[in-house]
Amino acid sequence: MSTKVAVVTGSNKGIGLAVVRALCKQFNGDVYVTSRDVGRGEEAVKTLNSEGLKPKFHQLDINDLNSIKNAAAYFKGKYGGVDILINNAGIAFKASDTTPFGVQAEVTLRTNFFATRDVLTHFLPLVKAGGHVVNVSSMLSASGLKQCSPELQQRFRSEDITEDELVALMQRFVDEAKKGEHKQGGWPDMSYAVSKIGVTVRLNTLSLDFYLTRLQNMLKKMSTVVSTVASQQEGPEFNSTFSLSVWSLHVPPVLAWVLPRWVLPRWVLPRYSGFLPQSKDMHFVGIG
Ligand SMILES: NC(=O)c1ccc[n+]([C@@H]2O[C@H](COP(=O)([O-])OP(=O)(O)OC[C@H]3O[C@@H](n4cnc5c(N)ncnc54)[C@H](OP(=O)(O)O)[C@@H]3O)[C@@H](O)[C@H]2O)c1
Predict the structure, then answer these.
(1) Which of 155-164, 174-183, 235-244 ranks highest by mean pLDDT?
(2) Burial bucket for residue 178 (CB in 10 Å: 0-12, 13-18, 19+)
(3) Which residue, by CA, sits nearest to atom 32 of ligand 1?
(4) Tens-digit pLDDT profile for residues 51-105
């Protein structure tokens, strides 16, 4: 059986380092400290070695797309994917920091939301069946959400918010913050909280996307199987009637398009979405 592997972003110090320490003691597989700075990462590994623990190291700067792609290629090549991904890397300006609000908004969202999203984009396809993805959010996301306008709260709480819509909303916050118009736009005065709202909601869209993609793949497979059977059976007996092949070739693809986009998000998932984060194949967890 192949060696299991756990990857923790931003784990040269703080909560990330503590998570690596705990995983080294409890997880049956390789555990990776990742850090944007090789020196700081290797120091963290030495610290853990001095405690008798044996983590491994790989460089990963989540703000650098090449670094993300290199790391993803490394884990795919060496382990065939990842079993645990913990999106921990994050930044926060101190309350006393005098950097203009617009700059703080842009810098904070770049790392906490947009870069975390990039990691998910490149690592999610690598997460193995039964794997776990954890996004480290913050309780401030909940208090920040309460301070958003009712319209924004409605969108963030909705079951059918898509990744594209979320990205557009996060970008809107940055743009309005840079113009000093975020309060009129319905946003709180807290970039960190908004970034973590994005991290939390992205997890929900992730669960939804994950299920919709699976459903679409399933329906596509079904349509291929049915049309193959139909084309094998198509003989004179089928040609005279409204043929099975017409049904099999056209209806499943139409269903494959319509169900995930319209029927599920609007009528089914809002009622039965409780099961979403509990997939047997992959687990999505948000903490903080
Ligand atoms: N501490 C809290 O009370 C608290 C509460 C709720 C949630 N959180 C969340 O928990 C996570 C960890 O927080 P923490 O308190 O442990 O913070 P921390 O001690 O400041 O550690 C943050 C880690 O993220 C890394 N990092 C920052 N930008 C990065 C990038 N572009 N690429 C890769 N790594 C990067 C840092 O690396 P460098 O050393 O190179 O800067 C550091 O290793 C964050 O997501 C934070 O928002 C913290």
Answers:
(1) 174-183
(2) middle
(3) 61
(4) 999 999 999 999 999 999 999 999 999 999 999 999 999 999 999 999 999 999 9
Yes or no: say if 161 and 203 are a contact pair by the CB < 8 Å rule.
Answer: no
Q: Is 12 in the pocket of ligand 1 (CB under 6 A)?
A: yes
pTM for the predicted model, two decimal places: 0.80
Nearest CA to ligand 1 atom 37: 10
Whether 32 and 84 have beta carbons less than 8 Å apart is answered as no
Query: What does pLDDT average to over the chain?
Result: 83
**Closest ligand 1 atom to the C-alpha of 36?**
33
Identify which of 270, 261, 259 has the alpha carbon closest to the alpha carbon of residue 158.
270
Which residues have a Cβ under 8 Å from the Cβ of 34 and sit 6 or more positions away? 7, 8, 9, 10, 11, 41, 57, 58, 59, 60, 71
Strand-pair category, 127-136 with 82-87: parallel
Could you give the CA distance from residue 144 to residue 189 in angstroms, rounded to a whole number?
Answer: 9
Tell me, in angstroms, the distance from the centre of ligand 1 to residue 265's CA. 34
Is pLDDT of 34 > 90?
yes
Q: Whose CA is nearest to atom 19 of ligand 1?
A: 14
Choose among 105, 102, 20, 2: nearest CA to 57: 20
Tokens of 124: 């999610």
